């Protein structure tokens, strides 16, 4: 996407009316442990799944910074809907980032997303703390140059809706093995199935079900990388990290935003008998809690904006890129947890009842600690960047 193309792109896609309808359905999806079907249909109709696709491929041509801002708004309205849509947005963002840097290897993804295909993110594996740098799944090379993937992928958001699945596995058979292989599998492949096993504490509408791959086939033109295991400077790895961490941080920033709004409304609504019936907005302790939450929340917006703009502008941060990316994810998710906690303390026992929005946010925000990079991995990344690797 050219600078001129980006400069004329719309800055927002989600209308206030659409967000209100999405917000109104969130409680029901959570209660019923149901996929956000109506939300999804409306987001598709609005063109939101094409937001990061350049206009030349049939998309809306928004920047990563634009979409991060939109994901904050969507995350505030319905966290689980935002989290699930995130996975498709990540893949389109990855393809966009590579395209802008002169790599056409994922242009097919931009073309297909522009035509309405939906991409799932089938990367996470139980017990794989190496994340992108290792895999428990098998990638078996085929005579035609394609690969067959076998393994189990967890937290596959958008499970009921994706039409293409981006995944990875380990090739131990080729002459240059081992290699981590990245490829895309069609939804109707007989080797791809999903378990109806998403019954979780929070983020229920995302329906991030377990995916089972049993020799699922990625044809040669859908095999996009063969990389050495371990840390890798390949642009694909950078693009995945950048889009995943930034857009994930945006969703949880939206959760914090909504929690703060609810805390303010509660403080004005609730009254105190010990303070002559005045609202809790006049209580010094409550005012301190809300101020504390607002100070933490306000710090995330400019950080998120800045790092998204750096990706859009192809800034050269060198060895600091990965520390910056994992840092924004950890800060955003931990800040959201802190803000939600403060909001619940302000709002009182009503938030402990089933169906209360703050109670749902309390459950939803907990998911942030499980997404990569987790706190341990992030601290290791940052320590290595500043202190060098551990001595062996």
Automatic annotation (TrEMBL):
Record keywords, A-Z: FAD, Flavoprotein, Oxidoreductase
Highest taxon of the lineage: Bacteria
Q: Which cofactor does it need?
A: FAD
The record's listing under InterPro entries reads:
Acyl-CoA_Oxase/DH_mid-dom_sf, AcylCo_DH-like_C, AcylCo_DH/oxidase_C, AcylCoA_DH/ox_N_sf, AcylCoA_DH/oxidase_NM_dom_sf
Sequence ranges assigned to domain Acyl-CoA dehydrogenase/oxidase C-terminal in this UniProt record? 246-367
Family indicated by similarity: Belongs to the acyl-CoA dehydrogenase family.
Report the protein name in the record. Answer: Acyl-CoA dehydrogenase
Q: Which organism is it from?
A: Microterricola pindariensis
Q: Tell me the classification of the organism that encodes this protein.
A: Bacteria, Bacillati, Actinomycetota, Actinomycetes, Micrococcales
């Amino acid at each position: 996407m050219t600078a001129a193309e980006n400069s004329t792109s719309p800055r927002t896609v989600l209308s206030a009316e659409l967000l209100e309808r999405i917000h109104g359905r969130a409680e029901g999806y959570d209660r019923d442990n149901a996929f956000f079907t109506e939300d999804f249909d409306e987001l598709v109709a609005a063109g939101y799944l094409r937001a990061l696709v350049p206009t030349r491929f049939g998309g809306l041509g928004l920047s990563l910074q634009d979409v991060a801002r939109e994901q904050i708004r969507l995350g505030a309205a319905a966290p689980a809907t935002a989290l699930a849509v995130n996975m498709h947005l990540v893949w389109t963002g990855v393809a966009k980032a590579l395209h802008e840097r002169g790599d056409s290897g994922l242009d097919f993804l931009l073309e297909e997303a522009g035509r309405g295909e939906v991409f799932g993110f089938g990367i996470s594996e139980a017990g794989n703390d190496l994340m992108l740098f290792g895999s428990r799944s098998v990638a078996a090379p085929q005579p035609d140059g394609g690969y067959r993937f076998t393994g189990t992928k967890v937290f596959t958001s958008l499970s009921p809706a994706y039409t293409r699945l981006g995944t990875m596995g380990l090739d131990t058979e080729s002459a240059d093995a081992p290699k981590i292989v990245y490829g895309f599998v069609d939804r109707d492949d007989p080797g791809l199935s999903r378990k109806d096993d998403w019954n979780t504490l929070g983020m229920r509408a995302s329906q991030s079900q377990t995916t089972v791959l049993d020799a699922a086939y990625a044809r040669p033109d859908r095999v996009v990388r063969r990389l050495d295991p371990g840390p890798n400077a390949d642009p694909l790895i950078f693009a995945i990290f950048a889009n995943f961490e930034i857009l994930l941080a945006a969703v949880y920033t939206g959760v914090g935003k909504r929690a703060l709004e609810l805390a303010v409304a509660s403080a004005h609504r609730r009254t105190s008998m010990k303070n002559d019936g005045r609202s809790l907005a006049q209580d010094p302790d409550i005012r301190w809690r809300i101020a504390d939450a607002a100070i933490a929340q306000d710090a995330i917006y400019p950080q998120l904006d800045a790092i998204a703009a750096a990706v859009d502008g192809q800034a050269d941060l060198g060895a600091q890129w990965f520390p910056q990316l994992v840092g924004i994810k950890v800060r955003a998710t931990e800040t959201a947890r802190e803000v939600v906690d403060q909001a619940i303390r302000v709002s009182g026992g009503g938030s402990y009842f089933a169906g209360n929005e703050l109670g749902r946010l309390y459950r939803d925000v907990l998911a942030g600690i499980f997404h990569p990079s987790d706190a341990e991995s992030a601290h290791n990344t940052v320590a290595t960047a500043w202190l060098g690797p551990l001595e062996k």
